[in-house]
Design brief:
Elements: H1 2-25, H2 44-47, H3 73-90, H4 94-101, H5 105-109, H6 121-146, H7 159-162, H8 166-174, H9 183-194, H10 206-215, H11 236-245, H12 271-276, E1 280-283, E2 293-295, E3 298-301, E4 304-306, H13 310-323, H14 330-341, H15 345-353, E5 357-359, H16 367-374, H17 387-419, H18 423-448
Helix pairs in contact: 3-6, 6-9, 6-10, 13-14, 14-16
């Protein structure tokens, strides 16, 4: 009996040791999400709202969607072709290119929210080369075609530019949060490709090249400014966000950090209600959509075109602002403010009449639902950019209500005095109403017979 007890005790000890070994394997010396992380997988609570807004259609950039879909194969072949053209044009060997970009691998990996251990050193470097070369060559080729620049290496059988709607898909895919490359990789290929002035006839900077490409993706390119990237620019989506939120008063990228605050979005009346309270709506200068002002009862709002491309862009920008710790919530604040103003199709019509909104959505997708769907209950606020503006609007509305209430009371009192002041006046109105109803019924009866 004692022997069996010892064996059983030995088995228990062995099981405990195995458990401890497994437990130790879960310990981590370093944070699973380094401070340098800036490219994230969109959380399921956001993705479930509209999954297709966060996923690529034609091209995978970076590791999140690499090699997962057959529809990416055409552009994967284009990536290889672009790289071969680059190596031939610049007379650089593939070995030399690999050696030069190897130094960026560790820094690039630290930008992603997942380790991607299935991509070893060689596969990760291959991805950086193919994707980075593709993006810069794509921007360069688009510039050549749009500016009608005569280049000997211009190719007319490029499927990116010869297939219908291909660019429309790429505009969508390249601005997805999960489809980003670190900015340092883009700068590497830009310097490599444009170090010879002959291949850069307009002498554009990387930021200008990117803006010129995406201006073609929107109905009104004036919503983009031309910011110069600072040391905190992390990828293309981040840069495009800066180009959208950089106001006329700003000449550099400012207020990037998220300052914790108890400020919550303040709701204001919808556009129709504001109009009834005497608020005037004025079309602002085309440009930064963030330049919204309220002064002396006048709401000045820059114009915005809403179409099918607007939703995915705003959704990915909101997801980025929710996840990146150094990013303020300017775009999210804008969406919340517009959602307050546009409670119904009547509000949309009012702003459309003032040429503030151009609604290019189909009839069953009015702009009021557009903003409401973007601003869902999963949005977490740390700082609301339009807090002061909303306070000013609500103060103005309260004053207007106090001013209009005595006037309304006087109207009601005057109405009672003029038309319902005596029993005879009330009786005459009752008789007139009864006669009107009887006449109407007689007319209907006559028509039916």
């Amino acid at each position: 009996m004692a022997g069996r007890s010892d064996i059983e005790e030995g088995k228990v000890d062995q099981s405990v040791e195995e458990w401890k070994s497994t437990f130790r394997a879960k310990l981590r010396r370093h944070s699973p999400l380094p401070a340098s992380c800036c490219i994230f997988r969109v959380p399921e609570v956001l993705r479930i709202q509209k999954q297709e807004a966060y996923e690529p259609h034609m091209v995978s950039i970076g590791p999140f969607h690499r090699g997962r879909r057959e529809q990416f194969q055409l552009v994967e072949n284009v990536k290889g072709w672009y790289l071969e053209c680059l190596l031939s044009r610049l007379n650089i060997s593939l070995d030399s290119l690999i050696d030069r970009i190897k130094v960026l691998e560790k820094e690039a990996r630290a930008c992603y929210s997942e380790p991607f251990i299935h991509l070893d050193h060689n596969k990760f470097v291959e991805m950086l080369i193919l994707d980075g070369c593709f993006l810069i060559e794509l921007f360069r080729k688009a510039l050549v075609m749009n500016e009608d620049i005569d280049e000997k290496d211009g190719d007319h059988d490029d499927p990116i530019f010869s297939l219908s709607c291909m660019l429309e898909y790429l505009y969508h895919d390249i601005l997805l949060l999960e489809n980003q490359l670190p900015w340092s990789v883009l700068e590497f290929f830009y310097d490599l490709i444009f170090e010879n002035s002959r291949t850069n006839p307009l002498e554009l900077s990387l930021s200008e090249l990117i803006i010129k490409f995406f201006i073609q993706s929107v109905a009104d390119g004036r919503i983009f400014s031309y910011p110069e990237p600072d040391n905190e620019t992390v990828h293309i989506l981040d840069f495009i966000r800066t180009a959208l939120v950089l106001t006329k008063q700003q000449h550099t990228v400012t207020n990037r950090s998220r300052t914790r605050s108890s400020y919550l979005p303040a709701r204001i009346p919808c556009a129709i209600t504001l109009s009834e309270l005497g608020v005037k709506f004025k079309r602002g200068s085309p440009g930064c959509i963030m330049d919204i002002e309220f002064t002396n009862g006048v709401f000045t709002i820059p114009p915005l075109v809403i179409d099918l491309r607007s939703g995915p862009l705003f959704r990915n920008l909101i997801a980025y602002e929710q996840l990146y710790q150094r990013c303020s919530q300017k775009v999210t604040s804008y969406i919340v403010l517009m959602d307050s103003l546009l409670g119904s199709i009547e509000d949309v019509d009012l702003l459309c009449e003032e040429r503030i909104l151009s609604n290019m959505l189909s009839g069953d997708q009015d702009a009021s639902q557009f903003f409401k769907q973007l601003c869902n209950h999963h949005t977490i606020f740390i700082m609301f950019d339009y807090m002061k503006l909303c306070v000013d609007v609500n103060v103005y509305c309260a004053k207007q209500r106090r001013r209009l209430k005595p006037q309304r009371n006087r109207w009601i009192k005057q109405l009672k005095h003029d038309y319902f002041g005596t029993p005879w006046k009330i009786l005459s109105w009752f008789a007139a109403g009864t006669l009107l109803v009887l006449t109407l019924l007689q007319t209907i009866y006559t028509i039916n017979n």
